[in-house]
Specification:
2 helices; 116 residues; three-stranded mixed sheet
Amino acid sequence: MHKKTIAAFILAATLAGCDAVSVVTDGLKHSSAVAADLEKATGVKPEVGFSWKNSRLTSVTVSFPKLYEDKPLRELAALSRAAIVKEFGQTPKTIQLAFELDAGTIAQAGTSRAAN
């Protein structure tokens, strides 16, 4: 009887591990598809990270390798949301857009200031 209990525990642990592996594997496929969709739409390939909790997509981070200025930020956000929902099949609780800025990047507001 003791051996059956141990065998059942090992089987349950293995099956639970397979579910975790499939969540990660599927998540990586989805994040790669989101990156490909956004690269097609913008010409820039972002890195896409994700977080799951209890089979729910809680957050997705889309990180572009440079400041993206070809489209307004709201349009980029809408493109990102659409790609995420399409590829992951659900809307996450939060979506984070990020841009990598190196030391030489100059980001300025659209309005100019008069010189004193």
